[in-house]
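Researcher: Next sequence.
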Amino acid sequence: MKLTSSAVVVVIIGCLIAGCAYLQKPDVPPPLPPIEETKPPLTMKGTYFQSFPWAELPKPVKDGNDPDTFLYTSKEGDTLESVAEKNMGDRNLAARLAAYNGLTPSASLQANEKIVIPYPIIGVSTQLLVKEKGDKDFSKTQAVDTRLKQGDQYKIRLESNINGYCYVFREGPKGVTFLYPAQAKQPPERRTGRKPTRQKPPEPLLRDTGKVDAHQAIDIPTGKAGIPFDPKAAGDKIWVFLSINRISALEDLKEKKNITDRDLQDVIHNVKESDIFSEPPYKLLRISDPKEILGFWLNLRG
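Model: Next structure:
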């Protein structure tokens, strides 16, 4: 059967109308992008979780929108123990991780199951060692809010839960001084007749680098002498900063002779003060980036 030219035109128009109707879809919002599994930005270690306040954590959110957690998608053969070991550095944390996710410790994981893992906490325990006038040695550890008297000497005992870097400053009557890491003492020049020679520098000490090891207490200042307390000087203000990485702004102050509180401001402004959990003797900060800094000050008084 032959079609007339007018019939052909009608058919073409009909096809165009049908095609347009097919292509024109109702106003439907585009589909949401798939949730991407966020990767932890630092190597998890079980020691980061030793002081973790699990009971105070909010209910886990599995949509990937909680900045304090990351999502792990289970693989075939994963167990709670293997997930805890892989992501938190300690398989013994499996029971706590299970409870946090609303699972029983003996629960079997299915492939592609979402497990919410909170970011770790870095923290410092801070106490005082006090030597009263007439005493030969420093006493046992005391609380930071211990009342000091004229003639007392004190040291600050710090203990971190991570391998990282710690910086301690004293804002006293004579300005700001670097307490830790202490400046490395250069060996004296030695004369051998014709020209002076310098002894070979000693190997760097722990106090010269600022590096701290997890759960190894440090007494500051190092050495036998402590810091004399003078109640007439309106007390002492101690600044403490801790990070997994070196803090470049504070590293630059190691060789500076006259440090002011303004030199510390850039670092202080980068501290998430409102997020710091404080319960003596602990100061804790949950981090999602290894560059984040735990910072706080102590006001020693008489």
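Model: The radius of gyration is 31 Å. The chain has six helices and 15 strands.
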